[in-house]
Specification:
Chains A, B: This is DUF3225 domain-containing protein. Two copies of one chain form a homodimer. By secondary structure, the first copy, chain A, is an alpha/beta fold. Chain A is 35% helix and 23% strand. Strand 3 of chain A pairs parallel with strand 18 of chain B, so a sheet runs across the interface.
Chain lengths: 530, 530
């Protein structure tokens, strides 16, 4: 045993037990190359590690069951330790220690802790399955995460709020949009978390916590379909049954590298789905690839009502400049590449009403409808909403009927102008104004991102248009979605165009990226001499 | 980057993708000190690692997202790699590689893979909670894992068999034994897996898989309350609501270091609980400590019917010799220590009927009752049972009523002789004939262990006695339970005696074991020079 190592290990365990952040930070080698990983991802750099520690309540108390030490030369040692949390379970830690002038310090650590029965940030209820689908069908074997706004026979709707769940009664039948999936052979694996009343696009929930974003460790998952999206991104489900009022499918799809479809307004029944703002609410889905998404859409949409849409594409400078610089660059680069490779023919530039005006009109009508749907409940249950959603409902409560009526007229006119400007073309735009913000971002920053993103996503809401978000763009390693917005009832055709563009994007990538099965294809290869 | 390391890493990933067991074994340094750990525990030695690989279907296909390499001297390197499974999620691997004459080889590895929504080997359904209890009460905050034999309002009983679940209808009310816990403030976190129809003590299920045993990596969890016990041992639940016909609570308690109580026959309502053999079936609980167990028992038993029992203890040589040698030694040592420390006064030696005769009589009556309960269903659903349970029902189907009637008379007489031999004393015996067998043990070995263990556990079944299994004994690091068997309706008093003995066992341990909070208190400290 190298001198001093065991006592350093013991001191570190004692600092963990006390959650002594200062002492803990001192045990890690300072600098950008120190690593700490667990089931939620890998943190790179001592600052990221210290930030993570500051944001958690501490480590469960535990005893060490076994310790395996490998001395490597005189100045390094690997310690593998098994621990037994006092609250049950077992943990495992692998640490690379190095002897520094200040004593033994940790260079890298991988930590496995005992997992809960289910991750409450993602799921409210889960089963194996929770509801079995019919045998056979086009969706046989597909596991569905149902957003907690849909009636599932035998279960109450919780809408992301425990007090609401408590006041709700179990549904006697499943929503028709869910029944369509079950008939096609899909099964329900669980009921997944949502931002409260779906009235947010951040993907955080003060009651159940923030789901992980497996593609951006430390990043928000996007909402309001946060739980279903994380479940699909993690491979815990294959399909999310979700809603999109003004981005609640497209934003988490963009943040997590998923496919998402917001359907044409009214194309899929909203019966048995808790409303937010009925003029804009739509049902849709998220999946890891276009095939499952298209199969779900085909099983759910009235195909007789579906219309073709020609391959005429448009972009609008305003929708590009509304996004942050990295998103602008990624979007422009993607359109350029698709044009050069022939996947997009001459893209037309169009003008739209000022986005700020459109968004203001949209959000006022949305708020008036949200208050009509939930105002009585919100008034009767003070203190039960998280601060963000509470402030949104407070704003909504102030809109009087006259004001809302005026905005409704504005909205109808704006919609006519949108129809005219698009003229049957497919609008290409970034799915969100940024990639996933950090979970630790300030409220002001989240609010600014919300405004910028909603000014993009509200276009489909205003027009009642279908919109697809496809993955394949990225900014500094974080995924970003490309959105296609098409004429009403062109949902399936839009998906087919999107699948073509996705192939074009994949083909345009460097040959060593995304093509290997087991080779080294990733973003980062970092080598250091320890 | 050390020469040859990256290509060794790539070759290893390729071997994983192909699940090439021969190649994979070659990548690990041969010998007893090589380590591989994941969420299920730490495997020690290259043989254990190869055995683990042989028993799993292979690794999910994945790409590498990032690679962090630390060269340590010339002959060692640590590689931390993030991967992206094609089926979603994210994985993390930390490996210590060493340069050998044969090339780069892995000395230690810790692997984190994407987890499913719920572990189907433990749970059928889980929620946050699944059923909320009343506010306040003696069990406030206690999360209950309900064995899948109990009615839970709104859910069908599955009994560990998917075909049975499919033919069952949702319960309109919860079983009274569950209602008692909910009234006391406990909530249901989920419905947990059982051996099929509870007709086994192994803890394996061909449909949902074998739950982990967090105290014995690679060991069986014990059954039939396998899922609830694993949930409690893992800290995913605090209390298991379970059944014990002939050991189904005491055996998993023993294998996993838990507390378990089988109640006096008839002391807790079996309404709303799927029967196996009603003459022996009892309701009971498992917990990590005696406090929660006693609170659950006090909330569920009719305290007016409970009787005191004096501190008169007995052992029977036969019940010791029925166990394997390690268990014999641990049991004798524990009784010796408890006598020397004054926790046990002079223990009397008593004689019982030959255990083999008692077991034969018991198992015949049990089988006849099991066939009466489930024979029609089993006949109507050929091919739906796993081989072990199928063969047990096949045996049961051959017992005619005359034979069963004869054994019933024998059983009543045996019970009278048991009552006389025990004479109001508390019998001390090992909770099982062995510690947890390996998951890879042969069917013949499992069957031999079953017979030996049931010859111990059937005593309480025959007498209708309550029995407590308390943890604190161990054989080669694996937990073993000490059982106390007392007069009918002495359940609570028996628990109090057991708590006293547990204190005695803990006090008798070396002062550096079990007392630290963060210090090194475990079984193993192994140091090597890499």
């Amino acid at each position: 045993m190298p001198a001093g190592l065991l006592s350093a290990f013991e001191d570190y365990e004692a600092a963990l037990a006390a959650n002594d952040l200062g002492a803990l930070a001192g045990f890690f080698v300072p600098g950008p190359h120190t690593l700490r990983g667990d089931a939620a991802g890998l943190l790179v750099g001592s600052d990221a590690i210290a930030g993570f520690r500051a944001g958690r309540p501490g480590v469960v108390r535990r005893s060490i069951r076994s310790l395996h030490v490998r001395a490597i030369g005189t100045d390094h040692a690997l310690i593998v330790s098994e621990n037994e949390p006092f609250a049950g379970g077992a943990g495992l830690v692998t640490q690379l220690w190095s002897r520094t002038a200040a004593g033994w310090r940790i260079e890298t650590a991988q930590v496995a802790a005992s997992a809960p029965a289910i991750d409450r940030s993602i799921w409210r209820v889960a089963g194996t399955p929770l509801v079995a689908g019919e045998v056979g069908g086009t969706l046989a074997g597909v596991r569905v995460a149902v957003k907690d706004l849909f009636d599932v026979a035998g279960f109450a709707v919780g809408a992301g709020n425990p007090a609401y769940l408590e006041s709700a009664t179990p549904a006697t039948a499943s929503a028709p949009s869910l029944t369509a999936l079950l008939r096609a052979g899909a099964s329900v694996i669980g009921i997944a978390q949502t931002d409260e009343f779906a009235y947010s696009i951040a993907g955080a929930n003060v009651h159940s916590g923030t789901p992980p974003n497996p593609r951006v460790p430390g990043g928000l998952p996007g909402g309001s379909s946060s739980g279903p999206a994380a479940a699909v991104a993690l491979g815990q489900a294959d399909l999310a049954l979700a809603t999109d009022t003004a981005g609640s499918i497209r934003v988490p799809a963009s943040y997590q590298g998923l496919w998402g479809l917001r359907t044409s307004h009214g194309a899929v029944s909203r019966d048995g789905v808790l409303p937010l703002a009925p003029s804009f609410d739509t049902v849709g889905w998220l999946a890891r690839g276009p095939e499952v998404l298209r199969t779900a859409a085909a099983a759910s949409l009235d195909t007789d009502r579906q219309l073709p849409v020609p391959a005429r594409f448009a972009v609008c400078a305003q929708t590009v400049f509304a996004a942050d610089e990295g998103v602008q660059a990624a979007f422009v680069d993607a359109v350029d590449r698709l044009e050069r490779s022939g996947h997009l023919s001459a893209v037309e530039i169009i003008s739209l009403d000022p986005l700020a005006d459109l968004f203001e009109t949209f959000r006022t009508v949305q708020a008036a409808e949200a208050w009509r749907a939930h105002g009585d409940w919100v008034d009767a249950h003070p203190g039960t909403l998280g601060p963000d959603v509470r402030s949104r409902f407070a704003f909504a409560s102030l809109i009087d009927e006259d004001e809302a009526a005026g905005h409704r007229i504005d909205l109808a006119e704006a919609r006519e102008r949108l129809d005219a400007a698009l003229d049957g073309r497919i609008l290409l735009l970034p799915s969100a104004s940024s990639t996933a913000p950090a979970r630790t971002a300030s409220g002001a920053k989240i609010e600014a991102i919300r405004t910028a993103t909603l000014s993009l996503t509200c276009l489909a809401a205003i027009g009642g248009y279908p919109a697809v978000s496809l993955p394949g763009l990225s900014v500094a390693g974080a995924p970003l979605g490309l959105s296609l917005l098409g004429p009403r009832h062109s949902d399936l055709a839009l998906l087919d165009h999107a699948a073509g563009l996705a192939q074009g994007l994949a083909a345009g990538l460097a040959p060593d990226v995304g093509t290997g099965t087991a080779g080294i294809v990733g973003n980062t290869v970092e080598t250091l001499r320890a």
